[in-house]
Amino acid sequence: MGKCLIGNWKMFMDWRSADSFLSCTSRANGIDVRIAPPCLFLHTMREHAQGLQIKLGAQNMNENKEGAFTGEISPLMLRDAGAEFVILGHSERRHLFGESNKTIEKKVETAVVEGFPFVLCIGETIEEHKEGRGDEVISEQLSSALSSLNSANMKGCMIAYEPVWAIGSKEPASNNVIEQKHVFIRDELKKYFDEDAASISILYGGSVSPKNLDEILTIENVDGTLVGRASLDPEMFNEMIQITGDNS
Ligand code: PGA
User: Is the CB of residue 226 below 6 angstroms from any atom belonging to ligand 1?
Assistant: First the structure.
């Protein structure tokens, strides 16, 4: 299984900078490289990204296919605009926008019904980490989102372990924490998908950069990374494409 690199642009960039970003970006050349830009840019970035073999995705979606939901965007619209996957349950959605496990479960359900591959983000807060409750929190997040799914539903889907305290901070979690959590997540996935759990990619996210990427990718059960800040700089992104390829 080759490793994966996903850039999460969050609420940064404008369409001109998105276009010039792609003009400076290397071709993925068979490496699984993805970008989740603000959904407004999907349509304009689509052709250029395809030429670079980079998949585009969405950072969030509404759990309904359509309806009177002012300001929301449905999975069908995102797909129509060029999204090939959707990030669900990002810690900023959970903590800044109050998305509960229940909300995320509904979004996962819709994504499965629509055949829209998702990247499910999970992770504990600093308090939960300090209280030694990280595994318990992650286990609940996984069980709520995945317990009613089967292996076929997980085709093309991934899990991203993103400790809330490592996102946007100075440093990623330590190698020991990453290793322990990824083993734990793999074991939890086995509960739901038996031996098929081995083929579900588990990404790490939280202060990944070209400086630490190589080391992170050598940790067992780390199948790729979800990168925020460092994915906004084309030079750093190119470096990370190279490092991901070297580790694939
Ligand atoms: P960061 O963000 O790389 O800026 O820490 C990661 C994320 O939120 O996915």
Answer: yes
